Amino acid sequence: MKIVLQRVSEASVIADGELTGEIQRGLLILLGIEETDTEETIEKLCKKIAALRIFNDGNDKMNLSCKDVDGDYLVISQFTLLADTSSGNRPSYTKAARPETAKPLYEKFLLKLAETTGKNIQSGIFGADMKVKLINDGPVTILI
């Protein structure tokens, strides 16, 4: 899996013309799923995301997790994170999981993140055309 994690003061997603997810302070998670990913990968990453200390404490140091600041989570499936641009000008997506593999893993990721964080996870719609709005706080952007 490849993840682009952004600390946001707000974020939302419109899928197929309809608002499907919206958060205030929290994390926007862009999630790319590879053919080799497993439920163990999901468990490891959800624990990492829940514990990642990228929110400022009272001394303006990044010492707090999203859970510590009662932040929210918005997850967007994004196979383009797995683009291979090493040859030519048209990206190859051969490392991205096929939809029949990726969609169940995406849904399991949402459930595991909810279980790990104790939060209702907001999301886009797998495979849909989506428009994502965000205000990156910091900016803080982490690649996992």
Structure at a glance:
Helix content is 22%, strand content 40%. The protein is of the alpha/beta class and 144 residues long. 34% of the residues are buried.
Question: Would you write up a description of this structure?
Answer:
By secondary structure, this protein is α/β, with parallel strands linked by helices. It has a single domain, classed as D-tyrosyl-trna(Tyr) Deacylase, Chain: A. The chain is built from 2 helices and 8 strands; from the N terminus they run E-E-E-H-E-E-E-H-E-E. The strands form 2 sheets. Strands 1, 2, 3, 6, 7 and 8 form a 6-stranded mixed β-sheet that branches. A two-stranded antiparallel ribbon has the order 4-5. Helix 1 (39-51) runs parallel beside helix 2 (99-117). The radius of gyration is 15 Å and the shape is globular.
SSE arrangement, N to C: EEEHEEEHEE
Give a quick account of the main beta sheet: strands, pairing sense, barrel closure.
6 strands, mixed
Number of strands: 8
Count of folded domains: 1
- Average pLDDT taken over every residue: 96
Q: What is the CATH level 1 assignment?
A: Alpha Beta
Q: What structural class do the secondary elements suggest? A: alpha/beta
The poorly predicted ranges are: none
CATH superfamily, please? Answer: D-tyrosyl-tRNA(Tyr) deacylase
Strand content: 35-45%
> Which CATH architecture is right?
3-Layer(bba) Sandwich
Number of helices: 2
Query: What name does CATH use for the topology?
Result: D-tyrosyl-trna(Tyr) Deacylase, Chain: A
**First-to-last CA distance:** 8 Å
Cα Rg: 15 Å
Overall form: globular
What helical percentage do the residues reach?
A: 10-25%
